[in-house]
Amino acid sequence: MPCYLNSLNIVMLFASRAERFTPKTLRKSLVLARRFLIITALGFIAFQQNSLAATEDLETEAWISDDSELISLENKIVREIQKNPKSAYHHYVLSHTYVRIFALNPSRLDLLQKASALAVQAIQLAPNEEFGYLALADIMDIMGKSDHGMAILSDAKAKLKADPSWRFEFTKARLSAAGQDFNSILDSIDSCLTRPATKKDIVIPYVITILQANYENERLQNALATWNKKHPHPLFDLMQAVTLTELQQYEKAHKIYAQLRKADPKFEEAIINDAVLLYKHLGKPELARRLLNEALNVNSGSDDVFAVIHAHLGSVELAAKNFELAKKHYVTSITSTSHQVLTVEYILNIYKENEAYSQLAKVLEDIVIELPGHAELYALLGELYSEKLEKHELAAKSYKNAAILSPDNGQFLTSLGLIYYKMKSYHKAIRAFDDAVRVNPDDSIALYNKACVLALTNRSDEALIVLNKAIQLNPSLQKMAQEDNDFINVKDLPHFRLITHEQNWNKQHN
Hints:
The chain has a two-stranded antiparallel sheet with strand order 1-2. Residues 6-55 have low confidence and may be disordered. It has helices at residues 10-15, 58-64, 70-83, 88-104, 109-125, 131-142, 146-157, 166-175, 182-193, 200-214, 217-230, 234-246, 250-263, 268-280, 285-298, 303-319, 323-336, 340-354, 357-370, 375-387, 392-405, 410-422, 426-439, 444-456, 460-473, 477-483, 494-500, 502-509, and strands spanning 36-39, 45-48. Among the domains are: 21-212, Serine Threonine Protein Phosphatase 5, Tetratricopeptide repeat; 441-510, no CATH class. It starts with 9 loop residues before the first helix and ends with a helix. Helix 17 packs antiparallel against helix 18 (340-354). The protein has 28 helices and 2 strands.
């Protein structure tokens, strides 16, 4: 039989077009202490964000708001500067916002120029205040020159008219991360958190990131509890619940989520995570459904949170075999989120767990209409039709659409050829494999598959020529050919034995 591609791995091609989530490792860049995403054992994503409390604090927004909100935040800060052009504080906040936007678009060097100009203006406006120096230090850090940033802070300390604030100590702790062990960094941040007016919503996500990078399981849980006792904050509670879930201590996690929801009925992360816990691990889908609908009502306007809620509602309905309602939620989720890769993977896994492949096909059929232009989605649908549903004509149509949308992707053409092979449409299969080889002349899989079809159609000489070329490109195909029944018509030919037996083949090509 032909050489097949890995089953249901088309989504990995889709993944190459989108950014993966940041792993739980310590990074020096400024984005560490802003809002971040965590992949949890719940099977999807739980957000840590500024929904803990609505804030008009522009500095906090500059640190923890969504990437998608940065442009509107920029406009808001610019308006504040227009009203108060001598505010060094607002120049510092806008500079930090530009640094964050630059981190997302490293080719936009003009953003660093704007940030630097704002930092210098802040120093000129208030040379005895810390804001401009902090902005310059952050710019040095994002440029990979943390030592320069530390030197700026050291020189600035003597110029300040007042003792340095929590911001100053927090910035020093972040910039010194490369040269200190994590306990020393945490000691500095601990001292920072004891200072008056420290903005914990900015500092504590950084603490959590360091703890996650250095601890896991019970040790992480204990570290979070210790910090929460010293510096109480809902983010510590949230992460304790997430960690307890990973430790399969579901009732304890549920208790924490319930306390968080009682303290803040609009705490989206606690509501969503608790709902997932209830339907996945505690056998309470009705309560989960109610909580998820509550989460929709309190959604702060984030499209990604909206998408997460609908994804989990889809899972609740799928488990209840409410297939049409599940499909509606899943389609809404995929078309709403900016993280389509994770959402597609999540939905694939849920339907595979339930072996509901025909229902998954209906979801993908709707999605390719809602999101036209995604070749990978058509390919995924084609593979599903072929591998799980044996609807080969529909599979061929889907792969044709994928190939039209992505003509440089030979893998889609090879897959189309394999569909025709299954349908015994051998002439169409050969054309598809030829098209794949035109895209990539070194595609050994397409060549091997073409050789299989040529052999089946009694075109023996052509089959052996093509097979020989495939093996030259990929010697591992030699053993496969020896055992492949598609070559039954040519196995007794001397040329076949020559090219499929390693010793003879090596002699021929040495």
